[in-house]
What we know:
Blueprint: H1 2-34, H2 44-53, H3 55-89, H4 91-105, H5 109-120, H6 124-148, H7 152-160, H8 165-202, H9 208-217, H10 221-249, H11 254-266
Amino acid sequence: xxxxxxxxxxxxxxxxxxxxxxxxxxxxxxxxxxxxxxxxxxxxxxxxxxxxxxxxxxxxxxxxxxxxxxxxxxxxxxxxxxxxxxxxxxxxxxxxxxxxxxxxxxxxxxxxxxxxxxxxxxxxxxxxxxxxxxxxxxxxxxxxxxxxxxxxxxxxxxxxxxxxxxxxxxxxxxxxxxxxxxxxxxxxxxxxxxxxxxxxxxxxxxxxxxxxxxxxxxxxxxxxxxxxxxxxxxxxxxxxxxxxxxxxxxxxxxxxxxxxxxxxxxx
Length: 267
């Protein structure tokens, strides 16, 4: 099983690397053929040189963005799971909290960002709050779906064995909900990154969002693209970290078995 997981991770890493290298190669070729001005579209080689010129500076800003993203994501995961359990077990919460979350999700979060800056200031807490708010809905919706996707016969069998509600939750509903939970986590981790950047756009003195905003004001397009490329790399890494955790937690799920058979067929 360990060798299978390592081989699968190696295949995924190879695929991602090939796609990214191919994308940047086509980008470099297009710039070489069309010769656009650097302030409109710099080449990947120029972007790489920009990153190399100040690696610690970029690393510091990237670390601040990643920190806000992860804190907001973890908070959304904890609150979202608790809210989903409450919604599943309480008709009152389903009619109130769930409806409120649906309504809140329809409001553009970037419109709420200035309020969080007023309430919490321009520090890290406001970025975490925006990241949390954007990521929360995906966690709640998918976890509720997973907790409810239980065969009635399985619940009846558990009750016939005198399983208590807490035991039913921990040993029946939660394991069944894991695939749906991880599906929500994959969406939420990307949304959490978007939320952190949105907060940095509104008011910040650090982070990749601040780098983009300040460089855009002085037409430093290469620096803008460098920050965007770093965000793409960070988002990809975070997504595949969650995907790897899903494989460790749910190796039994049919989607992983089907993908493994497909990889063996290709090999």
